[in-house]
Structure formats: C-alpha cells, structure tokens
Amino acid sequence: MYLFSLIRKRTAWFAVLWLFLAAGQAFAAELRVVSSGGLAEAYRRLAPEFERRTGHTLIAGWGPSMGDTVDAIPNRLKRGESIDVVIMVGSALDGLIKEGKIAPGSAALLARSNIGVAVKAGARKPDISTVTSLKDALINARSIAYSDSASGVYLSTVLFPKLGIADAIKTKSRMIPAEPVARVVARGDAEIGFQQISELLPVAGIDVVGPLPPEVQHVTLFSVGIVAGTKEPEAANALIQFLLSPEAASVMRETGLEPSGNAR
C-alpha cells in the first residue's frame, strides 16, 4: 500500500510539474522588434537578459526611422510586415501614432542621443571643439559622410546652411542610406563622418573625435511603441517596462546614450 501511495504522489507531482511547464510555454511569446541604429547596440546587449527573465523570444530587425530605403520602419509597417514593437526616433514615431500604426498610449521615451564625429582609426583628428573649428574642419575635409536618418537630415537641412558652407561642401559630402556611416569611414570612403554617437561607438576601425559643439548640437530622442494590432500586447508591454528599468538605463549610458529616466 505504501508503494502504491508513493507512486500516486509522484504521479501527481509530475502532473503538476507538467502543467506548470505547459503553462509557461503557453505564456511565452515571440516578439518581433525592429530598432533603428541609435539604440541597436543597447538593445543587442539587453535582449538576452529580457529573454532569460521572461521566457519570451525576441526576433530582431533593423532599419532607419525614416527615409526611402526598403528597411525603413515606416515603409515596413506600410507594407504590412509582422512587427510587434518599434524603437526609433521619437518624431518619426509621432508620425506613426498619428497614422494609427502605433497602439494608443503605448509610446515611451527611452533615451536622448547626441551627434558625433568620426575619422578612420589612426587618422588625424580634426579640431571640432568650437563652431569655428568645426566649420574649418568641414571646409578642409576631402570627403564627408552623414546618415539618411535624423542626424543627417539635421546636418544637411539646418547645420550646413547655418554655417554658410552648404554650397562649398556640396560636391564632397553625401548622405549614406542603409549603412552605418562609421563603416564608410572605416574603409576609407569618407574622411570624416557624422552620426549618433551610439551608432559610431560599436564600429571597429574608427576613432570617435567627439560630439558637435554644444551651440550646434542636435539632441535626438529615441522612443519605443507597440504596433497597433499586435497579438502579444502583454509581452510587448513587458519589454517596454524592461527597457525603462534602471538596469537598461545603465547599459544605455555605456553605449553612448542618455537614458530618459522614465522608469515605470
């Protein structure tokens, strides 16, 4: 009788364990997340820990926040790609909210980012400490590259005209679509490159000269939002809460960003 009782107890215990594991599998979700380059390095570092803690699986995609490339986040949503969460420039996300492509009330500011300057590793670093020296560096550079996203739009439409050098550097400067500017600089295709510092730092083969002078710096806000119609709203919200956590803030600082401090 004791043996049969022990067998029944163990059978019951294994049944409870199986139900627990099955329930865990049922609640585990696959989240498709598309991030722009500004938060890419921070996201790559944080994703494994989120998966470990929650059991959810993150499927990453990458694309600019704006522009005409196929991978640009607005274009992906326009053609109906299956995406649950987007991480992108805040102003571009605002546009998607107005279009009804982002779930109401789901957007949150994650971090602020400054524009930086890079040269090929080992090359002479130009003086960019003042607006005047930055202007001289641009005039004297043989070639200039900048991104097709928020930082590049600011440079080409605001900063270069403001400095009065737009025409002077027109033939030697170019906007780079669908590729990190740092890679262009690293292989020697541009003498000087501009992009978010958080996008420059992870790329080998370059030296980061520093940020733009404060008087002409342009701070880009990066935000996160849940795509309207997602089938995994709870898991998507859990990811946002994690990205707003103090732990995530620490990683963002390490990757060249200023976290928003909007912890939930």
TrEMBL record:
Keywords of this protein's UniProt record, alphabetized? Signal
Give yes or no: UniProt keyword Hydrolase. Answer: no
Signal sequence extent: 1-28
Could you tell me the Gene Ontology terms of the biological process aspect for this record? Answer: molybdate ion transport
- Which InterPro entries would you find in this protein's record? ModA/WtpA (IPR050682)
Return one GO MF term.
Answer: molybdate ion binding
Give one Pfam family, short name only.
Answer: SBP_bac_11
Q: Quote the protein name from its UniProt record.
A: ABC transporter substrate-binding protein
- Natural source organism: Noviherbaspirillum galbum
